[in-house]
Amino acid sequence: MSNNTIDPISLEIAWNGLKSIADECFITLMRSAFSTNVKERHDHSTAIADANGRLIVQAEMALPIHLASMTGLMRYILDRYAGDISPGDVFIANDPHVAGGTHLPDINMAMPVFDGEKLVGFVANIIHHADVGGAAVGSMSGGLDEIYKEGLRIPIMRLYSKGKLNDDLMRMLLLNMRLPEERRGDLNAQISACKLGVRRVEEMIELHGSDTLSLIFDEIVDRTEIRIRKAIATLPDGEYQFTDYMDDDGAGTEDIKIQLRIEKRGDRILFDFEGTDPQVPGNFNMTLNATQSALCFSLKALLDPGVPNNDGIFRAIELKAPEGSFVNCQHPAAVAMRANSCQRVVDCVFGALAQQIPDKVIAAANGANTSAVFAGMDPRTGRQYVYLETLGGGMGARATHDGKDGVQVNITNTSNLPVEAIELEYPLRVEEYSLIEDTGGAGRYRGGMGIRRIIRPVDHECEFNGVGERFRHKPWGLFGGQDGEAGKFYLRSDSGEITPLSSKASRVRLRADAVAVLETPGAGGYGDPALRSAEDLQRDIESGKFTEDYIRKHYPQRA
Fold first, then answer.
1. How high is the pLDDT of residue 550?
2. Residue 153: which domain range?
3. In angstroms, rounded to a whole number, what is the distance separating the alpha carbons of residues 507 and 248?
4. For the chain, how long is the longest CA-to-CA vector?
């Protein structure tokens, strides 16, 4: 290789080497973490950035919602510590308002990579911790109305300085989080993944040299930008608009409007959120980088699913969002449930572009990260436990296929927590885990189905916190497709008594003689239901996913 050009074969080899490093760090986190939220559900991400803080590569299995969080972390590190970064440093942060995060449970770490005295880049990762303190167990309850109630706020700080642990900082962190031993295990997993990534990048430096590796970083980002701009250019020029609504913020504000205007000219695209409602008291607000992550995912999903996740996508997007709005909130706005709001931003992009690329968009999906937190004292051990999960639901129908049933959609990429893992780790019994019949919206292609999970505490009383969206505003259909069904929470006692719960249920006491029933939303259908084939309708009935009554009601050809 010359000093100023990279031949395509060498570039491809180096690019795949970097991806392998990010993936290896991801697997290391998954296998060494203590919490089920990481080792089973994979709610974490890993990445490599260059010396300027540009995101170069994100692990293949990582979460799109973490994309801008790690970029934000890099920006704040370089602003705060420029010229004062050394080998062996490990930086930690989580705060959305002063450290580039998107919500407090996502703790970011980054470790610099050096070639001698030259800073070459960073290895970074994020884990969603099952609890980071605050007013509610799990740090994810609805209704919290300021960032101070949501957990411990960590600005950019040095957890390790030149290889030496800041023990005072570690003790302070653990003192303010529930389940400190689990937190320590997850934090140590993050540290180990950082150190592994640094060693692997140093091996690449030995192979290529740091100057050449920096050129490779430039090429990766530049080519990504060129590629996504070419994809943008395939869209018809024009202005497109869509408006959607969040159900509520859990603190008294209902029907929160997200208004999007897309302006596309050539290979340029502008996302303008003028007209979106102001930030709200409840914790569904979005920082600007959370909104940016949602937009990056949307463009990639619609135009070029294979394009890498890196800074090149950011450079291709223009974003206007009024300060203090729901999609660009300001301190001290609460943001814990921002993933639900990101899902609605994705729906807005899909809705705005549906007429232009009808073969690529999907109808509205379950539109939520329906979250559940169960917490209490384990009667078997006398120790506190916190079980956190976000549940999937229906995926929107497409131009050629039905929507998928019971899946995570759009910006999240987490797995479910298997029943066996729940019952092994926690004093809980899963009495039902199923798809909910008749929840997918009717259409030429029907929407995906929601999930029902029924959970009982065993030999003790526990606390339940649940947060759902698309519980009032149903997932909409496209081109004649009908809406999917909404979600709901309720308690059911052994005597059969039903107690409906709010979609932002907080601090609900659940006894051993009752169960919590969690039902997630379905998804919208695509196309006129009258065009659904007789074979597909018969398959719907035989599968048990839809009843005869539902089929007769929604499909005139079977009436």
1. 95
2. 8-226
3. 18
4. 78
